[in-house]
């Protein structure tokens, strides 16, 4: 089974639900191996962009659900829609009022184990996966993925595929929180029971004006 937990900080205040996180579970009647859940972490990339993050997450979730595609195809379609939404705003705005955002989109499919996971990222964005005690950080590296959504005409998400087995952990993080955690600290937190991981991360995050963390833990059935 999959355990999912999250927290966000908004204006220095901790919240279980925040504008930075969107959770879009499967709603259609499909076979377990065809069902997919979508998890989104949005991060403002320019001053004044924070107020658009919740709407952006909703755009991504709606577009992902509108047409049944492959996991990566659904993420790409959703991110293109979000990108065009921001681009449209920026074309009609003064330069100092432009908005932009980074995104991590995680789509999970299957009754598991294993659970098939596709992660699409556009900077600023951060994530990590823990398998067998080994930590791998995940961040956009492709040239077309290192600039935020909304600023340039072209973009392409940095995709990675993961098979989650029992005991694995995959976490989406805002970039500032990821940078504040050493590999050792993040590994130690992810090795805990999932309900104990987020409180450990919050001890690092609580001094920040905003941040987000969403944890997916693959547990024994």
List keywords for this structure.
221 residues, alpha+beta, Phosphatase 2c, domain 1, 6-stranded antiparallel β-sheet, 5-stranded antiparallel β-sheet
Helix and strand string, N-terminal first? Answer: EEEEHHEEEEEEHHHE
CATH superfamily heading: PPM-type phosphatase domain
Radius of gyration: 17 Å
- Counting DSSP H or I runs of 4 or more residues, the number of helices is 5
**In terms of per-residue confidence, which ranges show pLDDT below 50 for 5 or more consecutive residues?**
none
Q: Can you give the helix content as a percent range?
A: 25-40%
Q: Look up the CATH topology.
A: Phosphatase 2c, domain 1
What structural class do you assign from the helix and strand content?
alpha+beta
CATH architecture: 4-Layer Sandwich
Beta-sheet strand percentage?
Answer: 25-35%
Tally the structural domains.
1
> How many strands in all?
11
Overall geometric form:
globular
Q: Main beta sheet: strand number and arrangement?
A: 6 strands, antiparallel
CATH class call = Alpha Beta
Strand order of the largest sheet: 2-1-11-10-7-8
C-alpha end-to-end distance: 5 Å
The average pLDDT value, as a whole number, equals 93
């Amino acid at each position: 089974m999959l355990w999912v937990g999250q927290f966000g900080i908004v204006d220095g205040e901790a919240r279980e639900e925040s504008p930075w996180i969107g959770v879009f579970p499967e709603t259609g009647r499909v076979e377990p191996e065809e069902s997919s859940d979508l998890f989104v972490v949005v991060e403002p990339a320019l001053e004044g962009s924070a107020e658009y993050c919740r709407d952006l997450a909703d755009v991504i979730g709606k577009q992902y659900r509108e047409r049944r595609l492959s996991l990566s195809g659904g993420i790409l379609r959703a991110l293109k829609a979000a990108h065009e939404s921001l681009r449209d705003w920026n074309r009609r705005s003064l330069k100092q009022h432009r908005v932009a955002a980074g995104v991590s989109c995680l789509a999970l499919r299957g009754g598991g184990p294993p659970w098939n996971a596709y992660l699409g990222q556009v900077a600023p964005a951060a994530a990590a996966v823990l398998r067998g005690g080994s930590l791998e950080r995940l961040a956009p590296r492709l040239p077309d993925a290192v600039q935020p959504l909304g600023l340039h005409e072209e973009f392409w998400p940095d995709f990675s595929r993961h098979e989650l087995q029992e005991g694995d952990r995959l976490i989406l993080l805002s970039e500032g929180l990821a940078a504040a955690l050493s590999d050792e600290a993040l590994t130690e937190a992810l090795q805990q029971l999932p309900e104990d991981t987020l409180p450990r991360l919050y001890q690092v995050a609580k001094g920040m004006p905003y941040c987000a963390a969403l944890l997916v833990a693959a547990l024994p059935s």
